[in-house]
Amino acid sequence: MGVGLLELFLEFMKIGFFMFGGGYGGIALMYKELVEINKWVSDDEFVRIIGISESTPGPIAINSATYIGYKLGGLPGSILATLGVVIPPYLVILVIAMFLTSYMSSEAARVVFRGINAAVVALILYALISVGRSVLTLKQPPFINVVSVAIFVVAFTLLYLANLHPIYVIAVSAGLSILVRVLLGL
């Protein structure tokens, strides 16, 4: 793939610096940079990485950076991508803690964060559409992945209506996928 370690580190620093809204808000940015612009990972691979990162302990952005960094640059790439995604938010929150704590309750700060929060919702929606399209569709007819759509509906129902903890929803979804594979061979 030919990705240099410095390039990898700087790309993840950029992602880390603009990753407002936490990991879920950052998924859209990671998708844009890593899949669409740099083409370091495929659409399908990105979806799998997000699934793995969500299913393992720790923040999704750090887990994703660690995995992608390892894929592109081995252990050094993994370390540098992880540091790249962690250092910028650490420095930003450090500056805020040191200098701006009294400013954070001001009207100006509320206005700024209202705008940032709206953008974060848009980023999460973009990530949902980008990743969802890959998960719920197929590249050949019938174009709709019926099994994935059914599992999505069950998972959403368990999360939203039954208020089931996300860990259980992930376990149920994985179990359903295995069951469908074993029973139907899909």
UniProtKB/TrEMBL annotation:
Keywords (alphabetical) are:
Cell membrane, Membrane, Transmembrane, Transmembrane helix
- Spell out the molecular function terms from Gene Ontology: chromate transmembrane transporter activity
What InterPro entries does the record point to? CHR_Transporter, Chromate_transpt
Places the protein is found:
Cell membrane
Instruction: List the membrane topology term(s).
Output: Multi-pass membrane protein
GO CC terms:
plasma membrane
Q: Name one Pfam family in it.
A: Chromate_transp
Query: TM spans, by residue?
Result: 12-31, 79-100, 112-131, 143-161, 167-184
Give the family this protein belongs to, as stated in its UniProt record.
Belongs to the chromate ion transporter (CHR) (TC 2.A.51) family.
Q: What is this protein called?
A: Chromate transporter
The species this protein belongs to is Thermogladius calderae
